[in-house]
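Exam revision sheet. Question 4 asks you to relate a sequence to its structure. Input first:
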Amino acid sequence: MRVIKTTNELKDFSAALRERPFFAVDTEFMREKTYWPILCLVQAAAPAGDNGEEPVEAIIDPMADGIDLAPFLDALADKNVTKVLHAARQDLEIFYRFMDEVPAPLFDTQIAAMACGYGDQIGYEPLMRDLLNAKIDKGSRFTDWARRPLTDAQLSYALSDVTHLRDAYPVLLQRLDRHNRISWVREETASLDDPDLYFVKPANAWKRIKFRGLRTAEIGPLMKLAEWREREAQERDQPRGRILKDDALVELARLRPKSPAELGKARSISGGFERSRAGAAIVEAVREGMAIGKDDLPTVADKNNRTPAPADVVELLKVLLKAQCEHYGVAPKMIASASDLEEIALRKDPDVRAMRGWRREVFGELAMKLKSGDLALKLSGKRVEIVET
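Answer key, structure tokens:
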């Protein structure tokens, strides 16, 4: 088992990876006590070469003294080599911080599995068991990957994540090709290129907060409070909840304290907090939020006042979706979300993902026909049959 701890070793290994058509990648990281994930290990594995070269696989120790990850980052950026990951988003967040871009081209085995009928967001272990009959030792799952030294069992567990991925990729690719679904996976994977997935701009942090019933005058304070908290979390490298909980932000937006003394009345603020530097910053954030003009505030949909989607139509659409997913052997979540179905039920011309590209062909067109009465659903034995009317 090869563990790379020097830049020279990493240069040779990265060069070998770039000679192959694809390589599998995985990471081990810690982030329970930090805002930014701490990269502890990187695992990579590539197949045998066309001229009989042996497969290459190794663990990279990014915490080794003096190691420079640049050669490996160059391999991740190489557009001629496909990078294979499973449920890639968290790994991509880490690499985006190093590279300021997303590794490409990508192949996410979880997305591919959805297109092959494995259901919504199938886990790595059950997928590898089904595709490869792989037996995965779960004993090292809860390792503190930042501790050194790591045991051989821990390192072996980490490396197996990418050696199985490497072997699973051709199997999934063959299945996708057989059913002409490679383009489906490429379209879905393209959404992972969005930088907003990996870096939260403080000004947009309020969009992540779940709230109900905020009045117009309270939206600006919430926006500025969330912006302040996000910036603090990033600068201190602490989880958002360590700065202030979401519930506290919503309460403060409603209370709109104009002074530290008023801030001290908030039930979600611990005693003495109002006298701290953070307390003064919160009062200032509220003041800035209240100064935002009504016309400059975003339109926030209030679910309580929104016209509800007709429940019977949504249920019919769910039946149609299930039938089409069974017919095509694809996970429902890959075609349409619950909010997609509600929009289709409500709107004459719904602007949702389910109405674009291959999803429209598989489901969207039929959904609109079902709404207009040009299509019916009939029970045929134990199966639902789609009938043109």
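Marking note for examiners. The mean pLDDT is 92.
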